[in-house]
């Protein structure tokens, strides 16, 4: 018996021993407590607060202001103004003039969009403000920001007018097939309730024309303390934070004649209904069966928590059954599932949905309903329940092990859900105890009774088909949807036959190799091993997480080693082989064998590299190594699963080209690289006709059967002494036959000169401006950082000028880097979504900013903002396994010094204003770029009266 098998047996025994003795030790009628680590309270004016000290990340606090007010509360003349109010919070307030807030936050390392943000939904508006606490005045200033958002937003008339176009541009971004179809679907989904009439984005005519007092009325009515909560989670003193909350928010006032905050009811279904919604730009065909919407019960006692556990176990088993259906030779759908989901505060529904493949709509409906009925009538098996329990227990064990290392933002999100929808927050210490003690008390009868009573059979339902209406598509009628549903409900089902599953991946471990040398790097905290098969291993034990181990190994080679004729076989070889399992195990058997373990592993064959990536919990590293060995040395071939993979891939991609964005992206790539045959483009059905099982498997084996050239890197919560014997057993036993571990240059090169391309696609009045600068460059970490800093400064300018000053865009920006393979070159991507009428203005304004940067360089204030954000981000990253893994992998692949991770701050601080100006002149070569513009199929109205010259003149003012 392997170590893994032994642990499985012990875990099962522990569950049995605990059983009813644990049941008697816990009082089910006991109310669920509030996490004792969070300080909660309510001020006399009704404002609630949640405060918790949390050290992850260090010297940082997550602030949130949550208002129980969203689009559902808008009057008829206010549709879209809950969201507009959120925008106005960033446009001036009592203590921060317009632009001052964002500028101040950028100066202390807070990035607009990535860090500082907000969102508006039907029933709430949430403001997100992460603040560094390295200076004590930052937290005080952050509280002042929240106070201003609560009741100090200026709402200046001129600022309102300038924000209208920005909100309209945001609305424009959301337009497309999904938006058009959802507007038809939502009235039926919400069963005619107010929710379908109050989409947060609102109505364009109202956004364009509302009177100033209309938005001010919304703000006055609903931004009041008895609908608010403040959340403070992070590296802070809770008592001092509580004093600040009281000082800043205790003085807020509720209106004298306040409007009642009611919640919109959702009526019950009165009959069965069918709905068909199609669009020529739809990329997916789906069917959704929504059963009656009903009141959602909240968890109040431990007995309620136990019921939720039963529900979760049943749901996970049902999900596994649906997953297995997709792995048949002729699956009934591409993907499907059933379960209960919330639709609005206080409401939930059971639903079944599927992505339609070549089998069609009727078989998909039949599979959904019959699988539901199978679970409802016959329940689940003891083995299924045992695996579900093991997985759930392991999940909560990981949560518990990470309790002191979880990010503050995650805690804040949990407490926000408690405030908004009364989600219980007993804390992970309590929850882990509940899970350990309650799981053994849950019997198969408990779970089967839940399935019997909760899975609907012939209840009133809405059956919806949403998909493409392109020529040749088999579109059902709503009458057919209901007829197929009724037929499926009348079909008799039988219980699933129990199937024995092996208990371990390996009956015996492989013959072990040896660790032949070992050295310490005390500066970086590394142990470097050389194995008897020639492989190298780098160990970096950390305490950044309590239950996480990351593995990586990358070498050169990849698809470049194969001919054009093998392009698709090489590109999809890892996906094909992953879809068939390994050794004697199918893809459905592997997760069952690994029940109770936290393990992920994948192989990737890129253009020039081939990578191994893995993840494991601290106690699961042997299972990770076993998975790795079998994936590399014992790939499995299965003709039926290969057929299923190909057909599913073709079905999943058959409508991808319908999206205007996809057409545009493909055209841009083809234009930029002169239609090179080895371009990696969005997958299309024809790609998969070139793949054969034998050749895909042969290519996989050629590149992965030998581990030659790999350096394995392990970073995370492990003990080196414990993992070394496992490394000797599994990694040192890998074959290292001689294979090429270098790449061949595919000679994919960008065009030269100025090339412009217009693309006309899509029916919505939306455009996309893409400008790509390319060229040869000399790589160094310092030079790549200078280019990155240039991009960040340019993004500040784009926000300040194209968005805030000119109101031409909602979002967009630049990114750029220097690549080393297959040759040293740089690429700068500029992406700016906008209205068709503004394309010329956006292009002119962008080049005006580029030329200004080339001539004048950045300001000290701009560069300081970038440096502050980078420094704080790196400080946080230094306490993550992911950043260390990335640096170590880069060092091993390119043979550079991993100690560079310790000097990042020095390189950041060394960047000068002249460096950025010089980089702008070096990389913004206006004699060498590709410009592509997406226009709608039908040309939009001509540009407004202001000319491009006027736009440039306005920018200069």
Automatic annotation (TrEMBL):
Keywords: Hydrolase, Metalloprotease, Protease, Zinc. Residues 52-171 form the Peptidase M16 N-terminal domain. GO terms for molecular function: metal ion binding; metallopeptidase activity. GO terms for biological process: proteolysis. Residues 210-390, 691-868 form the Peptidase M16 C-terminal domain. Belongs to the peptidase M16 family. This is Insulinase family protein. It comes from Sapientia aquatica. The lineage of its organism: Bacteria, Pseudomonadati, Pseudomonadota, Betaproteobacteria, Burkholderiales.
